[in-house]
Amino acid sequence: EAGVAQSPRYKIIEKRQSVAFWCNPISGHATLYWYQQILGQGPKLLIQFQNNGVVDDSQLPKDRFSAERLKGVDSTLKIQPAKLEDSAVYLCASSNYRGLDEQYFGPGTRLTVT
Amino acid sequence: GENVEQHPSTLSVQEGDSAVIKCTYSDSASNYFPWYKQELGKGPQLIIDIRSNVGEKKDQRIAVTLNKTAKHFSLHITETQPEDSAVYFCAARGGSQGNLIFGKGTKLSVKP
User: Helix count (H) and strand count (E) of chain B?
Assistant: First the structure.
């Protein structure tokens, strides 16, 4: 079974620029998550989708971050404009049923904002 | 909301020794406690988990114990090997939303 795919793996941008990350979850997984992992810390949830609907986006900085999962499969996370403090690894995870099952993570995208 | 504390932040052991990592949580409604291993440049990998209706779970060299009264859970790795070297994260999930709250991680180094 293929795992969670993410791209790009690395991205370097200047502050105030925009960036987008892509995630393809495990086939058949209805729930998709985006996490932010700052160096030296555990992952922090940004947004959770159930199929193509948002379940929880309470920790998403909505003035600059947006995410979508239009057809209930792939998802895109965008940052516009980026700030220095957005430098982190952005992880995508998926789980099978209503988020009550195990979460499986992708390799992440390492973002550096200069 | 839920808060998860993890200790120690770094742990160095000799190959063959045991390693123990401890976590405490604050929300008594939390019911699911996974452990993840994260190697450099990779995403977290689920290695073992435990639910609140079980006190202990084992999988080969790895075991997890849960004390609901004290609100803490621990990861035990026996007969450590150099390939066990990584950062380990505990997490707790409360309520029905399925949101995981992670600890800050423990960097385990196993010296040959």
Answer: 0, 11
Kindly give the confidence (pLDDT) of every residue in chain A, 114 residues in length, as a single tens digit, with 9 standing for 90 and above.
689 999 999 999 999 999 999 999 999 999 999 999 999 999 999 999 998 899 999 999 999 999 999 888 999 999 999 999 999 999 999 998 765 678 999 999 999 999
**For A41, nearest residue in chain B (alpha carbons):** B104
SS percent in chain B: helix, strand, coil, step 5: 5, 60, 40
Q: What are phi and psi of A55, to 5 degrees?
A: -95, -40
User: Any idea what DSSP says for residue B78?
Assistant: -
Give the tokens for residue A49. Answer: 């989708």
The tokens for A21 are: 């990350």
At residue B68 the predicted structure's pLDDT band, cuts being 50, 70 and 90, is: very high
Mean pLDDT of chain B: 93
Question: CA A72 to CA A31: how far, in whole Å?
Answer: 9
**Are A35 and A49 within 8 A, CB to CB?**
no
Chain A hits for B43, Cβ within 8 Å: 4, 91, 93, 105-108
CA–CA gap between residue A35 and residue A18 (Å, rounded): 18
The sheet with strand B62-67 has its strands ordered as: B4-7, B19-25, B72-77, B62-67, B56-59
Closest CA to A17 of A110, A112, A100: A112
How far is Cα B6 from Cα A103, in angstroms, rounded to an integer? 20
Residue A45 to residue B99, Cβ atoms within 8 A: yes
B100–A45: do the CB atoms touch at under 8 Å? Answer: yes
